[in-house]
UniProtKB/TrEMBL annotation:
Residues 118-208 form the Sporulation stage II protein D amidase enhancer LytB N-terminal domain. This is SpoIID/LytB domain-containing protein. Signal peptide: none annotated. One of its GO terms (biological process) is sporulation resulting in formation of a cellular spore. InterPro entries: SpoIID/LytB (IPR013486), SpoIID/LytB_N (IPR013693).
Length: 380
């Protein structure tokens, strides 16, 4: 058991551009008040290159992979080759602007670069609350709803603390892509002020179950009017993640969808998956398939096929669909967007618009949970 105290877990190590191969990046500090450190390959400090860099802060450093080392340049001036580099802000509000693979981002905190497997590993060392704000903006910053932002902030913070050790062996805590939480920059776009207000209002607040363990804080775009049991998508049932009617998601956001698929391709797929003939009996069963409530499987002649597999293979928005014949195609008419487990973002936005609090939003989508201060919780 690990006890979080006020001094612990305030800074996270988040791998940036984690879904890309990086050979070179540009980094620009927003002020002259930062340190530039040379690192050993294990990330420990070798030496100080600059202590509170004295030159024009608008100038950009270029870091490139050269064999097993990093080449550092400032403009056309070569500053040497190093096993690793750390651009350290003097406080948590120091900002660095980064460009890699033509993608521009801005981050608070510090930036560490090492070579791993012939590629760049770029890591942002960032205060937990700044990270949470960046996640809320990246994952859900499109609709200015304060209570919705509060709910997302609690989920983002809970996820981060629950998964601190996920990539510990690789030298960081989390990634910046969908395998962790999307974190494409500090919060700095249109609804930044409202997001920061939401993060401040829920400072240090996390979501726990009745055993005071951190909740699996998952979410999706739209439930289609009914959420999904965790075991219907993944293997393990989670008591806080049970299927329930979700009227708030009906008719809003990405609630409905349609997709046309060649009928012979569609029918042949199921025949192959079940090991049967593509005959009238199978086709009739598929065309009569309805989901008045969400189903986990399509069942035919005593065999079952998980709808999550169908969704993946046909790239569907959800597993919540019906089938009808339309000429040479089948027309899938679906509801919802995403895996359907946990919080429905469209539903949460609708609740926020109707005046529900973030506490009510979280209680709507997670069973038997409570809000707690992270400093009071023991986690596995």
């Amino acid at each position: 058991m690990l006890a979080f105290t006020k001094a612990e877990a305030l800074d996270l190590k988040v791998r940036l551009y984690s879904d890309q191969a990086i050979q070179r990046f540009l980094i620009t500090p927003d002020s002259a008040k930062f340190k530039l450190l040379a690192l050993h390959s294990d990330g420990s400090v070798l030496d100080t290159i600059y202590d509170i860099y004295p030159k024009d802060p608008s100038r950009t450093f270029v870091v490139s992979v050269k064999g097993k080392r990093l080449q550092l340049k400032l403009g056309d001036e070569s500053l040497g080759e190093f096993e690793g580099l750390y651009f350290e802000g003097v406080d948590s509000l120091h900002q660095f602007r980064i460009t890699a693979n033509k993608r521009n981002r801005s981050y608070f905190g510090g930036v560490r670069a090492l070579v791993r497997g012939g590629q760049m590993q770029i890591v942002n060392i960032v205060n937990l609350e700044h990270y949470v704000a960046g996640v809320v903006e990246s994952e859900a910053g499109h609709v200015p709803e304060l209570e919705f932002f509060k709910a997302q902030a609690v989920l983002a913070r809970t996820f981060a603390l629950r998964n601190l050790g996920k990539h510990e062996a690789e030298g960081y805590n989390l990634k910046d892509d969908v395998s962790s939480q999307v974190y494409f920059s500090k919060a700095h776009y249109t609804h930044r002020d409202l997001i920061l207000k939401a993060v401040a209002a829920t400072h240090d607040t996390i979501l726990v179950n009745k055993d005071c363990s951190l909740v699996l804080s998952v979410f999706h775009a739209n439930s289609g009017g009914m959420t999904v049991n965790s075991e219907d998508v993944w293997l393990k049932p989670v008591p806080e993640l049970k299927s329930k009617i979700d009227s708030f998601s009906i008719g809003v956001g990405s609630y409905s969808w349609e997709k046309r698929i060649n009928s012979q391709r569609f029918f042949s797929y199921f025949a192959r998956m079940f090991g049967v003939k593509n005959d009238a009996e199978l086709q009739k069963a598929l065309l009569n398939f309805e989901q008045k409530e969400r189903q986990k499987n399509f069942t035919y002649k005593g065999k079952s096929l998980k709808l999550t597999t169908v969704r993946h293979d046909f790239k569907l928005r959800s597993t919540y669909f019906t089938v009808e014949l339309d000429g040479e195609d089948v027309l899938l008419k679906g509801k919802g967007f995403g895996h359907g487990v946990g919080l429905s973002q469209d539903g949460a936005i609708e609740m926020s618009k109707r005046g529900y609090s973030y506490k009510s939003i979280l209680s709507q989508y997670f069973f038997e949970v409570e809000l707690e201060n992270k400093d009071h919780i023991l986690v596995n």
